[in-house]
Amino acid sequence: MPTIQVEGREAIRAEEGQKLVLALEDNGVDILHRCGGNARCTTCRVEVLEGDAGPVGEAEAAILTTKGIHEPNVRLSCQIRVHNDLTVRPVMTVSDSGMDPGKRPVD
């Protein structure tokens, strides 16, 4: 089981191949996911501080480009399937934004 270290929290465990956004949400991490995990809104962005989050897919690359997000270590947690240990920092949170987190992403 991969370990996810979330900046400022204790490490959590993720099932092999689980979407990162679900691992975060299921472990009480404060993160938005307004589009339900469909790579449309970018609210579930995380900064990958350490580890290999895998390749950026076509849908993720397209929305990041459309939204003007070009930092190579900023990824959409709804598009990352966890296969390795990672250290991440959520970019947008429910508590900072005051928004509803959004519909639970599908696996």
Tally of strands: 5
The geometry reads as: globular
Radius of gyration: 12 Å
Major sheet details: 5 strands, mixed
Relative helix content: 10-25%
Low-confidence stretches: none
* Count of helix runs: 3
Mean pLDDT: 96
Beta-strand portion reads: 15-25%
Class of secondary structure makeup: alpha+beta
| Order of strands, widest sheet | 2-1-5-3-4
What topology emerges from the helices and strands here?
Blueprint: E1 3-6, E2 12-13, H1 20-26, E3 45-50, H2 58-66, E4 74-76, E5 86-90, H3 94-97
Parallel strand pairs: 1-5
Antiparallel strand pairs: 1-2, 3-4, 3-5
Q: Care to describe what's here?
A:
The chain is of the alpha+beta class. Strand 1 (3-6) and strand 2 form a beta hairpin. It is 19% helix and 19% strand. A five-stranded mixed β-sheet has the order 2-1-5-3-4, with helices on one face. The protein has helices at residues 20-26, 58-66, 94-97; strands at residues 3-6, 12-13, 45-50, 74-76, 86-90. The mean pLDDT is 96. It is globular. Pfam families: Fer2 (PF00111). This is Ferredoxin. Keywords: FAD, Flavoprotein.
